[in-house]
């Protein structure tokens, strides 16, 4: 947010959750981590099986070095209760302070911690996550909460129709251009790296200035990204205004041919993770690993994201590149 919002009540906190995640959760468990009263971390998982993953959630939270946690389950009481209470016990076992354990169902919330009828009636407390003051402030600050996780996935979905046909033709042309470059060069590797680095830098600059890549430019980018030194240059370039990189690699992922989508998906995941958007990072990695389950860089990043390693831990290793070994 442009400036931190002051959350004064449970309703305020719950109204903020969709804007932290990017969508309105359902059938979910959400953990909110605070450090000295400031919300610094959130993680969402499916409600189904949450109790079995309680130890995992406790380990993820511990890595974030937060001082307090709020646990929220979204769904019917019979499905929420076992999961959130198991997570509560797991956090207590690792000595993490839990401020509240909540259930949200049909626009009302219940606390498993509070037993006062004055503030926590048995029928639940109504709240408005759509038009309340916190939601309004989030929207003004430029945050978006889509209706569901599926709606976020659709934003990353491959394009279809005539645009897909045009991209297929452009990619065929880019393949021919690549062959010509390699065959006409004294040092094909050097020529390919130079052309690829130029394509990556131009694409980033175009995204920064607000102009889209045309089909031929984007197709060429997807082809040269297959060459690992070019992919690594794009990885190292993810810095500064991370929104630029998230926007660029989202568009490249959507328009890339399926077999060329792995590198853009991994780059999007890296940019989104560094920007604090674990939902987009996870979805992008799922796309990458569906196409190529053995793509090592995506697998390593998936372990980082699933393990709850904060982006700040990577920032501390700038200049160290432990992921440059083997087939990546």
UniProtKB/TrEMBL annotation:
This is DUF4192 domain-containing protein. InterPro entries: DUF4192 (IPR025447). It holds the Pfam family DUF4192. It comes from Rugosimonospora africana.
